[in-house]
Specification:
5 strands; 9 helices; about 10% strand; homodimer; DNA-binding; about 55% helix
Chain lengths: ~220, ~220
DNA sequence: CGCGATATCATACGCAGGTTTCGGTCTGGC
DNA sequence: GCCAGACCGAAACCTGCGTATGATATCGCG
């Protein structure tokens, strides 16, 4: 059922060594890689795998509550998909986990099929996310290659100002604005103004000094 | 705790007349309007209120499962915030509801405070959503006022093509493209190309015949 | 100290965008 | 049949954008 998916790495955090081992075996015998940790800290030290992956996290842990840990990950900007498992779950706990972005919440006892299906879905989500993130990384890299002035010009360009207005606002000559603008477009690898606006939209670049009526 | 919020309307669907009445009283005595229905169909017939509102929905209903009904609402594009309540909920049910976009899932018995807090949050979410929707409605209205040719031009403009290229693609003269383009910008009330791109992004306008490398 | 990166500005040229004015065809509704 | 509106186009004109060429100034690093 899950053998045809390209391999992915499942990080399992559970303080019960026996459970950890059996989940690991099950995953490996179904074509997944498995990284096993008995504490959240061990997982953080090892770092998130480079390949498509997901996190299989027990709610009840020795040091820290699994839900707290999940929220700590989100706060740190670690976007790995999370599946929570628990032996003593209740509905408020589930609501909290799902609100925090958990992909699934599996109460014990669960079948092997249930877990494998959840893991396969999560790995798929992560694969897609990573694909998108690759593009974003390049975009950010381009943006960070801009000089301060070029960034400033970019903000005003995507705000819809003309070169003349940008020049006035920055107390520059129009020709200087044109030069910054040209260099900026080249560095951003934007083929058109429309392209640039979409990039800026994505990067969250927005000059708030300009009144904008929509969006 | 919730008296200072502007009034909102809570639609309650529950097939137990007694429960329905007591929830209605509680809501009204806390400053909310309450619209009470004993079946999903009755709610659909009445329609979603014009003001900020939310839906308080029992999972177990006579005709239809509350979760199914929630998904049916989403499929119909009815975006009212949903709070589910149930006497016999379990974790898989909660997962399903939250995935389908429920704002909260309250297992009975719950306190008055819990329910009022959930309702107040949901009403707030709906108020925000309605505020945004108002702007979107105007945007759609503008777009629908465009003639087919103007729409076509708009798609190619936001794809980053020059008037010359648009003319070639539409087998038109460049001057005609300029006229369509000018009319389109006026009808869309776009002050700049950047504006137009953002509007198009929002409306989901995209000419897929053009290869786009990002986003 | 020289080098490179950044920033600034001027002149000039060519191309792109946008409007106005004028002209025409075609279709659908009153 | 007439009018409105969509659609198409040409000539003229103005503005905006982009680049090339050339020049100056500052700053930090090796």
């Amino acid at each position: 059922m899950s053998g045809e998916t390209p391999p992915g790495c499942v990080c399992v955090i559970d303080d019960d060594a026996e459970v950890l081992g059996s989940i690991g075996s099950l995953l490996r015998s179904n074509g997944f890689q498995a990284a096993l940790y008995d504490t959240p800290e061990a997982f953080l030290l090892a770092g998130v795998p480079q390949t498509a992956s997901c996190l299989l996290l027990d709610v009840r842990l020795r040091g820290e509550n699994g839900l707290d840990f999940q929220e700590r990950l989100a706060a740190r900007g670690i976007a790995i998909p999370v599946i929570l498992i628990t032996g003593h779950g209740d509905i408020p706990m589930t609501v909290r986990a799902m609100r925090a972005g958990a992909l699934d919440f599996l109460p014990k006892p669960f079948t092997e099929e249930q877990m494998l299906a959840a893991v396969a879905t999560a790995i798929g989500v992560d694969r897609q996310r990573r694909g998108e993130a690759a593009g974003h990384a390049h975009l950010r890299q381009c943006y960070e290659a801009l000089t301060p002035r070029e960034r400033e010009v970019m903000g005003l360009v995507v705000a819809g100002l003309m070169n003349k207005q940008i020049a006035a606002r920055m107390t520059l000559s129009e020709i200087t604005v044109k030069i910054h603008r040209g260099n900026m477009m080249r560095k951003m690898e934007a083929q058109s103004l429309a392209d640039l606006v979409r990039m800026a939209e994505f990067l969250g670049i927005r000059d708030d000094s300009i009144h904008r009526f929509n969006i």
